[in-house]
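HUMAN: Spend a minute on the protein record below and explain its fold to me.
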Amino acid sequence: MSGGRMTGHKFWGPCSFGFYIWTVILFKGSMQGEHQRRLYKELLANYNRLERPVVNDSAPILVELGLTLLQIIDVDEKNQVLMTNAWLQLHWTDVYLSWNPENYPGVQNLRFPSDQIWTPDILLYNSADERFDATFHTNVLVNASGYCQYIPPGILKSTCYIDVRWFPFDVQKCNLKFGSWTHNGWLLDLQMLDVDTSTYIPNGEWDLVGVPAKRNELYYECCKEPYPDVTFTVTMRRRTLYYGLNLLIPCVLISGLALLVFLLPADSGEKISLGITVLLSLTVFMLLVAEIMPATSDSVPLIAQYFASTMMIVGMSVVVTVIVLQFHHHDPQGGKMPKWVRVVLLNWCAWFLRMKQPGDERKRPHHKYRHSSQQHSSSSSIEMGTVPSLTVPLAQTSCSPCPTGTSNGSMNLYFGNYHTMESPHCPPSSDSGVALGGRVYGSPGDDTDAPGIIGSGPGGLGIGVGIPPPEIQRILQEVSYIAQRFRDQDEAEAICSEWKFAAAVVDRLCLVAFSLFSIICTFTILMSAPNFIEAVSKDFT
């Protein structure tokens, strides 16, 4: 029995102690609720939310303003609006909401709706929201000393001047200007607190550089009182990886394709088509940039400058291509190349570009030969198309003896003193001749009259041709016409070859010049941005 009593005592002892503790806590909780209810009634009994909570009406109430930036939601460049997720932090002391904690045990602080007590009318001056005040009105936390904490969250839409001069390597600064709407500086002393960015959520398009704050006091002509405000400057840098991959790199590649116009052969017929296609592609990219940029004339975006310079290069390449095609397909009947064009393009530029005209080395001996043959033919005794006498004593022509080795080498056929190509510089010897019109002139004293008979004298060979004189004249005219046609064709081909070579020189010269100009424009324009190196090092690595 004694053992059972000891066991029951051990069991009921802890249970009774726990019951006692629970009863005390419940009693205190009920008493705290009663004190809190009574405190609410006493504080709001004679409270007027329109009255400034100060002891002296001539003294200003001190209000501290801070900002907690959570996220940069969007930066609308076209409408120049910044959208952020932020919390305001308002701190002030309300002398009418203080109490003695000893008279209200357990009541450390109270929570009042913002529409039941006095709150400072702090608004965002540069708000772009339809409701103007986009904050959510939460409860005001008040402690025993009357110190009030009001933290309204909100999606703030503010106007922001977007400077697109260095787009896409730009740094934007957007101001959030807060101030009292109806109280001047003598009634409400607005002071600033530090900005809290510890809970900031990074943005995929913008890097937050900093949010400095500054207190300003403005004086207006109408009033002598100061009007203080606190301005938070959201400084952010654009991340350029997206625009680099989708705008800049395609533009660089397209401008590189424009240089291929000068490498494309003129006979392909696609030089103009390629240039126009590249120009249209750049126009499409230019329209994409114009859609996201504000319609402002204050400054030209950096990327627009680059696109404009590239389009100018491509446009000039199309113009030069037209000139190249005009040179390449130049009509020989249009005349020879001007002397200054030949000197500039075929001499100076070709030497500078290390270009040689195709077949230049092969054509030089031919020109010398043709020149000598023309000299010799000009000294002949019979002109083309006019045969003064068909019976020509060839023995009267004197010349230095020509070497003869074989019968074929010594037998030169003459029609009116026309030489064969085997010995263009030597006329026939005096002991050989041609009998025209039925008479053979070969050796002295030979009177053979048989037409069409081939005879030879002691020192040579005579040929008798039984063709009437008009037939020979007609044959000579036809031969001279054919020879003249060949000479005209050779001259036309030489003229065309000169113009084609000039077109190739212009193509090569423009390829070098436009390549250098494109590289210089690319680096000069893009590297003129103040933070180009920083953007490339952070976003592209």
